[in-house]
TrEMBL record:
This is DUF2849 domain-containing protein. InterPro entries: DUF2849 (IPR021270). It comes from the Bacteria. It holds the Pfam family DUF2849. It comes from Mesorhizobium argentiipisi.
Length: 101
């Protein structure tokens, strides 16, 4: 399973492609379950970069853990959660359940 992530150009916030726009939580991201869906996300990311909406566009691996979408790599877990020194701040303070596919 993969999702499209980037940083919003206007403020640098980590975002994930979801339902035709960019969500601030990975739990809302559109999940690619096959190569065709992954290619579609890559095309969306390329267009968003060309339109100066986002930078640092990447397709990343995710898993569903206890009903939540969770990035696989540590770097992406940190981007999804927020500050590593205060778990009461940032996105990790209120995890979002995974959207139904």
């Amino acid at each position: 399973m993969k999702v499209l992530t980037a940083n919003r150009l206007s403020d640098g916030i980590a975002v994930w492609y979801a339902a035709g726009g960019w969500a601030e939580t990975v739990g809302n991201a559109d999940i690619a379950y096959d190569k065709a869906a992954e290619d579609r996300l890559e095309a969306i990311g390329a267009a968003a970069t060309a339109n100066n909406e986002v930078v640092d566009v990447n397709i990343i691996d995710v898993a569903i853990v206890d009903g939540l979408v969770e990035p696989v790599r540590l770097r992406e877990k940190i981007r999804a959660a927020g500050p590593t020194i205060r778990t009461d701040l940032g996105k990790q303070a209120s995890p979002q359940p995974a959207r139904a596919a």
